[in-house]
Prior knowledge:
Low-confidence stretches: none
Strand order of the largest sheet: 1-2-3
Number of domains: 2
Mean pLDDT: 83
Order of helices and strands: HHHHHHHEEHE
Largest sheet: 3 strands, mixed
CATH class of the largest domain: Mainly Alpha
CATH architecture of the largest domain: Up-down Bundle
Radius of gyration: 25 Å
Number of helices: 8
Strand content: 5-15%
Shape: elongated
Distance between the termini: 52 Å
Number of strands: 3
Amino acid sequence: MEKFKAVKRASIFGMIGNIFLLIIKGSIGFITNSQAMIADAFNSAGDIFSSIMTFIGNKIASKPSDDDHNLGHGKAEYIYSMLIGIMMILIACQVFKSSLFSLINKSVYDFSIWLVIVCIITIVVKLSLYIYTHTLYKKHHNLLIDANSKDHRNDCVITLMNLIACILNVNGIYFFDGVVGIIISLWIFITALHIFMESYDVLMDKSICDETKNLVYDIINEHKEIGKITNFNSTPIGYQYQISFVIYVDGNLSTFESHNIADNLEQEIIAKIKEIYLVVIHINPIETKN
Length: 290
């Protein structure tokens, strides 16, 4: 399937790019003792883990349904997205701790033109990855891709702040390095919490959003042969939903006629609403006066 192939490519590109950035950030950060750059290196390490989790989660989610998993393996996307969120939270805590220590103890670092060069390289690489993954997300609406896209976007902003810290360091303003490290940690934490909660909601079978539910009702209301609808339920399956409901039709219709109405409605909803994976309709009769 095209979606899973796209996610696979994005995860591989992410791993390659982040391994490269981890090496140059870590080397320059430790050589110059820049806490902001070291924090950025930790962030790249977390990005490598995220890319690996994306690759594994996508591989599992791409498996078709079987006897043990009748609705497929789509929720693997959310399990691995949650793991990404947890790892990012742990990294955020470590970065916050080291940056706060640097700020309190007024640590300074040696300015190097390589700090500026690394920042520029990082912004170029991450901006390219963000544009690529964000385009894929808009096309496929995959949470793993969305998590990676947001991470690349955040890295662009974080590294820009890192670059500002380098420039201020030249003018003797050293404290901003620790401040940037703290801001980076908070940014990572907020992004991680959002990813975690979005994954949690799906794994806890959160209902379909009201906007999509209303779209379903709009389609149903176009069918005048349907008297009313009750017992609407939804269950997330990967990035899509299975929905079920009861429709009431003329009790004088034949079994074939009433089921034909339901079959056509199921196909129409799936064709028009990409968030819907499966529609299950139960039919009840409405008594009519002769």
